[in-house]
Each structure stands twice: as structure tokens, then as C-alpha cells.
Amino acid sequence: MFTDQCNHHEALPPLPDDMRAVRMTAHGGVEVLESARVPLPRPAAGEALVQVRAVALNNTDLWTRQGAYGLPGDPDALAGWRGPVTLPRIQGADVAGRVVAVGADTDAALVGRRVVIDPAIYDGSGPEANPVGLMGSERDGGYAEYVTAPVDRVHDVSGSPLSDDQLASLPTAYGTALGMLERGRVTAGHTVLVTGASGGVGLALVQLARERGATVLAVSSGDKLDEVRAAGADAVIDRAHDVVAQARSATTDGIDVVLDVVAGDLVGRGLPMLREGGSWVIAGALGGHDVAFDVRRLYLHNARIVGSSMHTPGHFALLMDIARSAGVQPVIAATFPLEQAPEAQEQLARRRHVGKIVLNP
Known about the structure:
Elements: E1 18-24, E2 33-39, E3 47-56, H1 59-66, E4 89-90, E5 94-102, E6 114-117, E7 120-122, E8 131-134, E9 146-150, E10 154-156, H2 164-168, H3 170-183, E11 191-194, H4 200-211, E12 215-220, H5 225-230, E13 235-238, H6 243-250, E14 255-260, H7 266-270, E15 274-282, H8 296-299, E16 304-307, H9 313-324, E17 332-337, H10 341-350, E18 356-360
Parallel strand pairs: 11-12, 11-14, 12-13, 14-15, 15-16, 17-18
Antiparallel strand pairs: 1-2, 1-4, 3-5, 3-9, 3-18, 5-6, 6-10, 7-8
Helix pairs in contact: 3-4, 3-9
């Protein structure tokens, strides 16, 4: 939402009739991403037109392009995050930019504001609403020079010292991470274990958990451990060796909350690490979605297994407060021009980087 922060007005150029964009034309490999000139979107009533300064990539971009989400009752169906995707589709959930126009019944004073867009499409209007759609999947996103968004999903960050690339890194990765922290009830003094700590969400979890005052044990690969430690991890665990044994040796009192984007067999092996009443929060399945565990370790110890998908509007508002004060410093792994979106997605898929990959339209 817009706030009364100072406005960074710049001379706004006349709006063009069309714009550059990269569109997903089918499900498949990066060859289905095409550069094109498309009509400039026009903001409807209650919407803003945002000039995209930076758009960050996420695994969701890859899986939506591949159609890898399946459907209820048909796990092999080609589908996006919440079902079939209308094609062609402009991808890109994570946008930082500035407002250049507004639709009817919208305050024109908003033009010129530096903003971050909440990419979620919610099932209601309250602060606890659940995400049921995503910009770049269920509606066009930020792989373009301009994008429209509802005004109540456009957050003023004019005073933030973070760069556009850093601001664009926040919505999906840090929003998902903050949703995990909130749903896992992480507080100062807790000991947390973060899996996949070198990825976008994992690194966000490390930074946000430290910002909250938790002790962070982070799991990553050997060539990335130093960078994860530099991001704020109190101890790093090499996933090439026994993660459970390393975690047990790193803390004598067990783990309060596991913040997990990997899942797989670690859930079954690691559940006994939790302290009494601890939580295992899962927001991904990079290690496999078929999970088995000893249910006695769950109910005898009052443990919780929590599913967490993205964030609520309330979570995102908290994230934007952190953005305005630069409470975290997102790490940028690489930047690409818009037309190199296929190359950027290929680099993301290789998973050799630490931090976020960003397109600069």
C-alpha cells in the first residue's frame, strides 16, 4: 500500500503505445521464451502502471515454464502454480519500479513513487488471506518494460536505501521466507535449521531469522558454505555429509524450528531433532515430494509439520517495513538485460550461484 513517505519525482517520459517483453508461448525449455513488442498495458480502475526497473527470477519461473506443477488427480499434467496457464504469458513475479500512471478512481499523487509489487493474488481482502494466484503465472508479470498491478498490492518504498535489484529480490523469496518464519512462530532465542540455504528462499531465511534474533544453522554445499556463513549463518552444514549428525553436533539442545525447502528423506531422518513442541515448516520439495516418517516422533513430542506457501498480505506488509529500513541486504548473484531472460533462466537452473538473478528492463 502507498504511504506518505517523501516522493522521488523524476521527469516522466511520454508513455509509448507498445513495450518490449519476453513471453512464454508454450510449456517447455527456454526456447519457448520469445522477445516481442506488445501493446502497453493500460491500468484499470484501482490499478497502477509500473515501469519495471528490475525483476528477479525464481524457481517458480522455471517450473511454470516447464508446466511442472501438475493438477489435483493428474500429477503429470502440464500446469502452472495454481492450474492451467493462459498463453502467451509474460512471466516475472518480483518487480521493483516506479508508478508512471494510474487508472480511474486512483490518486494521481501516486505517480512517481518508487514501489515494490506484492505479486500474490489472494482469496480475500483481509491481512490473513491466502495466495491463490501469482503475477507472472495467473496474470502477466514483469519480464517487460511495464506492468499493471492493483494499487493495494503496490507498496511505496521511496525511502529505502536498497537498490532496485535488491528490492526486486524481496517479494517471492523473502515473502516466502517470512511466511515460513511467521507460520513456524520463530522468535528471538530460537535455534533454527535452514535447508537449501544458498538458494533464493534459503538465503532469505538465513538473513530474516538472524534479523529476528534466532540462532541459524544452515545447510548448503561445500563450495557455497563461506557465502552462506557471510550472509549470517551461525553454523554451516555441508549437505554432502550426514546433515542430521552435523546438526546434532552443532547444538546440544535440539532444534526449535526446521525451515525446509528441500523435504525428501531428511524429514523422516530429522524429525527426532526437534525439541518438544518444535515445528518443521515445509515450503518446497527440491529433495523429493514423497516423504515418510515415524508418526510417533510427531505426536509423542507435540511436534508440528506446517505447510507454507508464499505469504499473506500481513506478512508482506512486515517485509516492506524491513525493506524500508534495509533490515536485510539481498545478495545479487548476476544481472541480465531483459532479452537475455532465457540465459538467465538457464543460469538459475544450474544452481551454481548464491543469491538472486535479476533482469534489468
